Amino acid sequence: MAVKRVLTVSQLNEYVRGIFRLDPLLQSVEVRGEISNFKFHQSGTLFFTLKDETAAISCVMYAQDAENLQVMPFEGMRAVVGGTVGLYPRAGQYQLTARTLDAAGTGVLYERLQALRRRLEREGLFEGEKKQPLPRFVRTVGVVSSPTGAVIHDILHVSLRRDPGIRVLLCPVRVQGAGAQEEVSRAIALLDGMKDVDVILVARGGGSMEDLWTFNEEKVVRAVAACKTPIVSAVGHETDVTLCDLAADLRAPTPSAAAECAVPMRQAWLEHIAALEKTLAESAREKIRACRAERALSVARLEASRPDRRIEENRQRLMQTTQQLRSGVRGMLTRKAERLRQKRREMELLSPYHVLARGYAIVQRGGCVATSAAALRVGEEITVRFADGYVGARVTAQPVSDMGEDNGGKEERLHV
Asked: Distance from CA of residue 147 to its chain's centroid?
């Protein structure tokens, strides 16, 4: 009976790798296929998958061979890859170590992608003028992604680290496979219709072109382009570019970077607000100081020309002027009265009625003073005015002249 030998995993992998090395065909082989899941490592090493309609093989091309390439490989490129087939012991997976790579056209999927891209570009879905800036203040982040896996955990970790009070609203969807494009499109429209969602993240992890194809579907791209809420696309790794990335307002290389871009740093904003409050308070204090100084100046000017003082001064001047006016009027009236009395005395002295008190009388005829006896006629009615009144009379005789010595001794007498 044969004794069974138990091998370790490492021993088994080394044994199989030795078998690969013994086969001359596998040491120098050329394989035709389509490049998928292409990745460029920072060391210069290229990792990709070469596939056809029914099978695929992992490939690696180290930096020293990649430097000699005439054309850099890309996702969807058809190529003829030459190299060695061997086993990678650590993973227990066989792979093609590429030495050469020659282009052989583009794949069907890649051609379809480019045709759709050109058509949507002509419609203007990728124009930079249509892209919205991300909001400065964010309270709620909407996330369209798978509820499982590292993507949502990375977004939550980064978002809560930057702002512990942030609200993350996940709309769970399938990110690949049948029905994925309908779920993603509906989720974007649903979050876009919520007023409290400030920004939307569309995210998934890396993968091949086929894995990411949901985010190249026209329905999803149009949903992203039509979104009124600012939207960030973080699909695949940094080297993966989908049409969803081109239609979004911002493309992030990874889901974590998308959270970094969308969620402002709370502490930085708090410090900024504190600085603004300090500046505002200082400005307010400076304004108050300026207003107080202006008020003091105004009070001093008002004190120098107080309306009540001016009113009092004007009142005093009015009273003084009134007194002067009254005194002047009284003096003028006194002088006028004295002058009137003087004129009255003068008139009395000159008045013909003044002598009536001494026994004289005035003879009037027809309302006029008769100045001559010769002017009177017998029978004519006359009025004789005495100092104390009037008396009526009639002329009964012809006037007789009585002029004394001046009349040569002849006299004229009037008989009444």
From this structure: 40
Mean pLDDT score, 292-297: 88
φ and ψ at 137, to 5 degrees? -115, 125
On whether the CB atoms of residues 383 and 393 are closer than 8 A, the answer is: yes
Q: Is 35 exposed, middle or buried (0-12, 13-18, 19+ CB in 10 A)?
A: buried
- Given a contact cutoff of 8 angstroms between Cβ atoms, the answer to whether 39 and 47 are in contact is yes
Is the full-model pTM beyond 0.85? no
287 by DSSP, 3-state: which?
helix
Q: Give phi and psi for 285, each to the nearest 5.
A: -65, -40
Q: Which of 366, 405, 360, 363 is nearest to 387 (CA)?
A: 360
CA 188, CA 222: separation in Å to the nearest integer?
10
What pLDDT does residue 152 have? 92
- Give the residue from 208, 151, 209, 217 showing the smallest Cα distance to 179: 217
Residues 6+ apart with CB under 8 A from 250: 131, 134, 230, 231, 232, 233, 261
Give the three-state DSSP class for 413. Answer: coil
pLDDT tens digit string along 214-238?
A: 899 899 999 999 999 999 999 987 7
- Please list the alpha-helical segments (H only) found in 71-214: 108-123, 150-162, 180-192
DSSP secondary structure code for residue 8 in this structure: P
396: Cβ contacts below 8 Å, ≥ 6 apart: 378, 379, 415, 416
Contact in structure between 188 and 224 (CB atoms under 8 Å): yes
Q: Is 4 exposed, middle or buried (0-12, 13-18, 19+ CB in 10 A)?
A: exposed
Return the bridge partners of 235, or none.
204
Instruction: List, in sequence order, the alpha helices (H) in 124-242.
Output: 150-162, 180-192, 218-226
Q: Which whole-number Å values give the CA distances from 123 to 108, 126, 127, 188, 220, in the listed order?
A: 23, 8, 9, 21, 15
Tell the residue number behind the tokens 């979050």, with chain if given: 191
